[in-house]
Every structure is written in structure tokens, then in C-alpha cells.
Structure to design on (142 residues):
């Protein structure tokens, strides 16, 4: 099974940040523009949270809030679950499922080295399973 490091090496280590005092509207626009589902929230160069499209939907829009008037810090998730690059994708999927989160920042030596999503994890599992299937088919037919 792939590790977080291997997954990030394949998909890229880039992640997108937003200031804690930016509006939820700015966050939504940035996610839409980049085609991503979460942003790392920074304040004075420190990671203080993570905001996802679900945070905006459930904590703001469904509650009748105004995205243009609400700062990211008011709706972000401030308790962030992080993983290390040596964790397996299976371990990450179990953690995401258990804690009901869709994005996990990966950290090494106190710094963010990338973010993996549940979609990234599912794709990695499917690729591993496809490889196993091909190997078994090859074994059976030879």
C-alpha cells in the first residue's frame, strides 16, 4: 500500500492557503478557481485551521450566514488532524472515515508538506487493487 509520501510525490506537494481574516466568499471563490475542496488557513505565517467547502455549506450557508461578511476564522475547522508522510493511504482512509473528515494535511518536521483528500486516497486504493487484479490475471493465464 502506498504511503502519504508516495501519494504526494505522484500528485504534487502543493497546497493553497488563505488568511484567517479573508471572507468565506473569497475562500469559496479560491476553491472554485483552483478546483480544490479545502484551503489551509494561515495567521501570521502559522497554520491555524482548515476550511473546506463543507464548512462553508454547513456552518455558514445552511445557517443563513453571509459569505461576504463572514471571516474564514469563524467557520474554519481549528482542530486539524495531520498525518506524517510515512502513514499508509489505508491508515489515512481509516482516520478520515472515523473522524468524518475529507482532507488531511501531511506534516514533517513541523511544516506542511502537502494535503491529501479522500478522493486522492480512493484513487490510490483503486490503482493498487487494479495492479493486484492484473497480477492475478497474469498468474492465472500463464
Amino acid at each position: 500500500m502506498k504511503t502519504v509520501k508516495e501519494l504526494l510525490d505522484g500528485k504534487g506537494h502543493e497546497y493553497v492557503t488563505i488568511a484567517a481574516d479573508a471572507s468565506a466568499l473569497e475562500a469559496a471563490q479560491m476553491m472554485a478557481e483552483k478546483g480544490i475542496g479545502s484551503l489551509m488557513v494561515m495567521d501570521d505565517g502559522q497554520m491555524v485551521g482548515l476550511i473546506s467547502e463543507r464548512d462553508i455549506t454547513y456552518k455558514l450557508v445552511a445557517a443563513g450566514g453571509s459569505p461576504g461578511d463572514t471571516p474564514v476564522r469563524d467557520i474554519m475547522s481549528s482542530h486539524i488532524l495531520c498525518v506524517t508522510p510515512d502513514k499508509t493511504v489505508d491508515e489515512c482512509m481509516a482516520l478520515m472515515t472515523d473522524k468524518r473528515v475529507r482532507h488531511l494535511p501531511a506534516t514533517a518536521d513541523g511544516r506542511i508538506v502537502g494535503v491529501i483528500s479522500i478522493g486522492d486516497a480512493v484513487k490510490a486504493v483503486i490503482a493498487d487493487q487494479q495492479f493486484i487484479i492484473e497480477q492475478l490475471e497474469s498468474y492465472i493465464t500463464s
